[in-house]
Amino acid sequence: MLYYLILTVSVVLFGVQFGFNQIYEKESDGSVRSSFLFVFGTAAVGIPILWVINGVRLSCTVFSLIMAVVSSVNMILCNYCSLKALGRVNLSLFSIFSMLGGMILPFVTGILFFDEALTVGKLICLVILSVAVLITVDLKEKKSGMLYCFAVFVFNGLSGVISKLYTSLPFEKVSQAMFSLLCAAVCTAIAAVPLIILRKPPLRPTKKGLLATAGAGAFNRTANYLLLLSLAQLPASVQYPFVTGGVIIVSTVISCLTGQKPSKKEIVSMMLSFVGIALLLIIP
Asked: pTM of the prediction?
């Protein structure tokens, strides 16, 4: 039960982080450089937070460093494709590919490669949450950005797969907090390169945009650390459907609290998410 509580806290943090992401999108110019600045800022903010969580200690292994590089490159590619996709398709269509990828790929990986049980509860939950995501799509949207959407599906799903590989493979590794710190440090270094190369004309982020970057970084990096912590005890085929359904619920609640009236589709999606998560926990 403790790890489900940790997972729930992580989901809430992700929901708040998405609010900061929306603020930054409104404050930025939508360029590739702005995207890299956001990646750089959010990762850099996470470094001191994760260092403190790790007990103000530093350590490293070859396996942990390799996986941190792989994770960081995947995250940056996902961020870049997300930016391109959002410039071509609407948010609802983008969210479908992002959320389904983040749920399905780790689910399949856990079942096929790590001997996680394929139960009735998991299957029903997967179907219900897939419906919950799919009903939010706007079918009138043009599909010129579908290639980028498929890329987001893969890269967002791979983030969970990489986490599962890190926690499960039998190599010498650092703690979850230290690995999260390594990921943040590597991501900061990689994102700094294009910012140095493309430094002209200079970016002039707004104060509100910088604050949104700091908020997103603090919440995202902490949430990802908690995901990694719970993944050491929970199957990927349970954790990632739980996260997908939870994010739908939290995002809808936040929309209500901030005065953004959710649509009927979003309300139905939230209700289905409740049912899917409940069945995941109740049915063996």
From this structure: 0.90
